[in-house]
Amino acid sequence: MRETLALRTARLExxxxxxxxxxxxxxxxxxxxxxxxxxxxxxxxxxDAAAFVxxxxxxxxxxxxxxxxxxxxxxxxxxxxxxxxxDGAAEIGYWMSAGARGRGYGAEAGxxxxxxxLGPMRLERIEWHAVAGNEASARLAQSLGFRFEGTRREGLRxxxxxxxxxxxxxxxxxxxxxxxxxxxxxxxxPLRVRRRRPRPARTSAPRxxxxxxxxx
Length: 216
Ligand SMILES: CC(C)(COP(=O)(O)OP(=O)(O)OC[C@H]1O[C@@H](n2cnc3c(N)ncnc32)[C@H](O)[C@@H]1OP(=O)(O)O)[C@@H](O)C(=O)NCCC(=O)NCCS
Fold this sequence. Notes:
Residues 194-216 are annotated as: Disordered. The chain is an alpha+beta fold. The chain has helices spanning 22-28, 32-37, 46-62, 105-118, 135-143, 209-215; strands at 7-8, 13-15, 66-72, 75-86, 89-96, 125-131, 147-158, 161-171. The model has no long low-confidence stretch (mean pLDDT 91). Bound molecules: coenzyme A.
């Protein structure tokens, strides 16, 4: 499964997490920003990382989820996944380790996952949710072509409390050109289009990641 679902970009390799990744995941998830903006347990123990890897493998097998550990030449730099996969839709989630941020890795990995989701997986919609105010995550989603759809009051639970959530979406018919978001200051630099591959014609039903791994 690790090899068959692997995605490669210019600088990164994305592959389903395995036991060898547990220590690096545990270390990266000590970062306050990951704990602040994601729903991981806090404090985050090595057992939490081991349980995360086991859960990812199981949910990938059932088709509920597809998660990739992101590696550069030095080692693990982040995690990205498609969650709650059902009815042709999924939710994207990601974190990059503190030392790897600001180098375009999030956007590079995100672009590969969006290509995979709207390409071989044939999903029709990808959703993004974040705690309101998470500008780094919002900017990354914006750069991938997601369009802001609104704020859900107390829409997310992180660290034991409910907080307002921003929601954005990308549908397979979108051209993936970045657009301005009302909750973000207008960009001074032109928004780059990250779409890499032409969108396939939608001729058949969505496929699970597991079936793609088996059939190619
Ligand atoms: C969100 C996160 C994954 C971004 O990863 P990254 O590798 O640093 O992102 P990139 O370098 O690829 O940048 C992608 C875009 O976001 C912008 N961006 C990244 N960090 C930013 C920040 N702190 N503030 C404003 N914009 C930011 C970049 O300028 C870039 O936009 P552009 O291409 O239009 O110029 C990373 O900050 C992170 O892990 N945060 C903590 C966990 C988290 O919030 N996860 C998401 C939960 S919803």
